[in-house]
Design brief:
Spore Coat Polysaccharide Biosynthesis Protein SpsA, Chain A; binds magnesium ion; 38% helix; binds guanosine-5'-diphosphate; alpha/beta; 5-stranded mixed sheet; 3-stranded antiparallel sheet
């Protein structure tokens, strides 16, 4: 009997020892991973841009998210509630994700062919399942012309659930990690301050007047999302830089250097390849709202801004010039800055995403034009690009030959009267690329 009591005591002691060992080991192994996830999600939470918990919602498996689907971890985006909150700190806050990519921990990028440090950057695409073949074409071009040597990640965002075909095909085409996020309902829908009847009448009227996408609700949600929310999607919080890619684009030349690194090294925050005039009917009161914002927040207006690009009369009226935002390489920390978030909030409350049809291109362009010093905006002449119906084919024959371009220089839109790029060069007193007169 005494022997079996001792035996029982040994078992109880061993049981408690095991619990103790398990507790120590699980808390220490979690620390490293958690530091990362917390850095990602807490960044904006600390600043008040994000509300609610959710650091654990970000997939840090280090594998393709498609692969981790099998473990039930996809579409992580709607777990966190990145609701509109008060504005953040300035973009330069050391708490924001920075570059280069650290190369350690679960957010490290896989090795790349190109030497040197990579920026903490990702491609980002908003798409529906039905876009799969058009976006595949875009991905293939981006990979062939650039990313095969860099393996940057690719974030796909959708207001619905991505299906298996979309994930399978796009995961196969991307050289970096492919990640799939679902958009929070709060960011893709009518805000409660919108008068539904009024918005409906506008759509009917625009339909009658045959204004492109004038009767579309989803197009308006898309424009509002691209204007104010994509950069605070939980998956995007891990990155400092983004490159927006849309379905059915073309890249006509090799990109033999890292544009993200170029942006970082040269202190750029926003960039473009095509610029043009916006349809007036879609933004009749946008500039009035912008002027109200400027009056209310003079502290957000940069001294050396690009007002001359946006207005021919010192800001009284808008000339409708904008950078075409279906291509963008930019800094996410800038979009997450107090200045940009307050600008978006202000315009959102004005209601023009629904009472008119404000596009994300003029919204981003006006922000960059007024709130960034002009040296922080870059024109990529060497990135040859097409999105229906416009082409940017680099000016200068030698450049086109060196970069193995296959665009016809006659299709280049830059020096066309409907482009604003000429104005950009004049404002910045930049010499036009060699040979531009011949390509006008
Ligand atoms: N998930 C989702 N993506 C959309 C929706 N509408 C447009 N997009 C995406 O938003 C971007 C802009 O839309 P697009 O149709 O190309 O507009 P356009 O370039 O102005 O003609 C593209 O990346 C589309 O795939 C939508 O309702 N849902
Ligand atoms: Mg498009």
């Amino acid at each position: 009997m005494a022997g079996s009591t001792r035996y029982l005591r040994y078992i109880i002691a061993a049981f408690f020892a095991l619990i103790f060992i398990f507790f120590i080991s699980s808390s220490s192994t979690r620390t490293i991973g958690q530091q990362y996830t917390q850095t990602a999600a807490d960044i904006l939470k600390n600043q008040g841009i994000l509300r609610g918990g959710g650091s654990g919602a970000i997939d840090t498996s280090g594998k393709s998210t498609f692969a981790s689907d099998a473990q039930g971890k996809t579409d992580v985006g709607n777990v966190v509630n990145p609701a509109m909150g008060p504005a953040s700190t300035e973009a330069s806050s050391p708490k924001q994700p920075t570059s280069p990519n650290t190369g350690i921990g679960p957010t490290a990028f896989p090795p790349a062919k190109a030497p040197g440090a990579r920026m903490n950057a990702t491609f980002v695409t908003l798409a529906r399942n039905s876009d799969v073949w058009e976006i595949s074409r875009s991905i293939r071009q981006v990979e062939d012309r650039f990313n095969h040597a860099y393996n940057y990640d690719w974030v796909f965002l959708n207001d619905g659930d991505f299906d298996d075909t979309f994930k399978k095909v796009t995961t196969a085409l991307t050289s970096g990690k492919a990640r799939y996020g679902k958009i929070d309902k709060e960011h893709w829908g009518f805000p409660d301050f919108i008068d539904q009847e009024k918005a409906k009448k506008v759509r009917e009227d625009m339909h009658e007047r045959k204004i492109i996408y004038g009767d579309s609700i989803s197009y308006r949600h898309m424009c509002r999302y691209e204007s104010g929310f994509f950069f605070r999607h939980p998956l995007m919080l891990e990155y400092e830089w983004y490159w927006r890619v849309e379905p059915s684009i073309e890249l006509y030349c090799d990109i033999a250097y890292d544009p993200f690194k170029f942006m970082a090294d040269n202190k750029k925050k926003y960039s473009f390849v095509l610029s043009l005039y916006e349809y007036v009917e879609t933004i009749p009161t946008l500039w009035d709202s912008v002027k109200k914002f400027m009056k209310q927040h003079p502290e957000h207006i940069a001294d050396n801004n690009s007002m001359e690009f946006l207005s021919d009369d010192g800001g009284v009226t808008y000339n409708h010039c904008h950078f075409w935002s279906n291509f963008e390489i930019g800094n996410l920390n800038w979009l997450r800055s107090k200045a940009y978030v307050e600008y978006f909030d202000f315009l959102d409350k004005e209601g023009g995403f629904f009472y008119e049809r404000w596009g994300d291109a003029p919204i981003h362009s006006i922000a960059a034009g007024l709130m960034l010093p002009k040296e922080e905006i870059h024109f990529f002449n060497d990135i040859a690009y097409y999105h229906v119906p416009f082409t940017h084919c680099p000016t200068g024959e030698q450049m086109r030959l060196d970069l193995k371009c296959h665009c016809n220089p006659k299709d280049n839109f830059d020096w066309n009267g409907y482009s604003c790029t000429n104005r950009w060069f004049d404002m910045n007193k930049l010499p036009k690329p060699e040979g531009y007169e011949k390509e006008q």
